[in-house]
Design goal:
CATH architecture: Alpha-Beta Complex
Distance between the termini: 20 Å
CATH class: Alpha Beta
Helix content: 25-40%
Number of domains: 1
Strand order of the largest sheet: 3-2-1-4-9
Largest sheet: 5 strands, mixed
Length: 283
């Protein structure tokens, strides 16, 4: 198996994550945001046998550039010529809450299944529809892009989703087979109009991969679970909250009693003790 880790900050936290997940027959690929100092990450991971994605993307918050970073990582993984049963896409603020041995055994038992969390935007996640129904310019580096988006929302009809498909999405972190990765990349290469549609969305990466997977020949293998523990209690105080809660030592019992494999988000500059306790638990 292999990990594709996407980072833009906290080299120390990346080094800690790499140290925890590195294991025989477990390769690691790292995409560092083009805006970030890649050397800072390489310096702290130089003792590990890891691969840094060569084609780096300038990632903008909520932009399609997030998906593009994943795509470039996937391309590099396939170009390596190595055979992987699973590719785990994670962020630098994820962390395993199960032992490496458990993770390997879990995916052996579930070989061939695709672990992607999704909801139908038309039926279950309607609050996400504005992300794709109106024009957004998150990757544009111009002043007034949000005003432009607001103006177009008032004067243009809602955008129609490509091919008459239903959009599916929720989590942009997933564990999928190499066969699914191959299919996704082939689809992208042959459907420029689909990619172009998503370039004008906000947080479109949460929907892009899930929808392609749901309409793939491998869709019957999808398990609607990304295997990630995430606390969205932030939405209780702010329904429009864009980020989950930062996990702390107060979340320890919930984490170790969870059946999930990874958790997010962690921040070593806000609470490092929680990672220390997790390490003690899964040694």
């Amino acid at each position: 198996m292999c990990y594709l880790i996407q980072v833009h900050k906290y080299p120390e936290q990346l080094a800690r994550l790499v140290n925890r997940i590195i294991y025989p027959n477990m390769d690691i690929y790292i995409h560092v945001d083009l805006k970030s100092d890649e050397n800072a990450f390489k310096k702290l991971t130089k003792k590990y046998d890891v691969n840094y994605v060569k084609k780096r993307i300038n990632v903008q918050w909520a932009g399609f550039s997030n998906a593009q970073a994943t795509i470039e990582g996937m391309r590099e993984i396939l170009k390596s010529g190595r055979k992987y049963d699973y590719i785990h896409v994670v962020s630098g603020q994820d962390y395993p809450i199960k032992k490496n041995e458990y993770i390997i055994e879990f995916f052996k038992k579930n070989q061939g299944k695709e672990f992607i969390a999704y909801k139908s935007l038309y039926d279950e996640w309607r609050e996400a529809l504005p992300k794709i129904e109106y024009y957004h310019f998150e990757d544009w580096k111009i002043r007034g892009k949000y005003r432009l988006s607001f103006l177009l929302k008032r004067i243009l009809p809602k955008r129609k989703f490509p091919y008459g498909w239903k959009p599916y999405g929720y989590s942009r972190w997933f564990s999928i087979t190499q066969e699914m990765v191959k299919y996704i990349l082939e689809f992208i290469d042959n459907h420029a109009d689909f990619v172009r549609f998503f370039k004008y969305t906000t947080c479109g990466d949460e929907i892009f991969f899930s929808t392609i997977a749901k309409y793939s020949p491998l869709h019957e293998n999808i398990i609607n679970d990304d295997l990630r523990y995430v606390d969205w209690s932030t939405k209780l105080t702010d329904p429009k909250a864009a980020n989950p809660k930062i996990l702390t030592i107060n979340d320890y019992n919930s984490l170790i009693n969870s059946d999930k494999i990874w958790a997010r988000k962690f921040d070593i500059f806000k609470d490092q003790k929680i990672l220390d306790k997790i390490d003690e638990y899964i040694q």
